[in-house]
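Section: protein folds

Sequence with per-residue C-alpha cells
===
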Amino acid sequence: MVAQNVPADAPGPAHVPETGAFLVDTSRNRVGEFRGVAGPYWSLRPIGGGAEWEAEPKRVRPADPIERLHAETARANARSRGDRL
C-alpha cells in the first residue's frame, strides 16, 4: 500500500446526520429533511413535501432553532391542508 500525502487541514468525511434531521443546503438557501446518502451527495426533501434534491455535504449545515421552527410550522400547515408529505 502506498501512503498518500494528505494535508493536515484537509476536511475529513462529513458526519452523516440521522434520517429526518433538518438541514440547510447553503448552496440553495433551502431547509430540507435529511433522507439518506446518494453516492457523494446527501438527499434532502422539502419539509412540506415534494421532490428530493441532492446536496454536497460540504454545503450543508444543521438548521438553527429559528430555521427548525419555521420548517416544523411549514410541515404542520401542510398536514392541516391535507398535503401529502
Observations:
- Residues 1-12 have pLDDT under 50 and may be disordered.
- The longest strand covers residues 30-38.
- The chain has one helix and five strands.
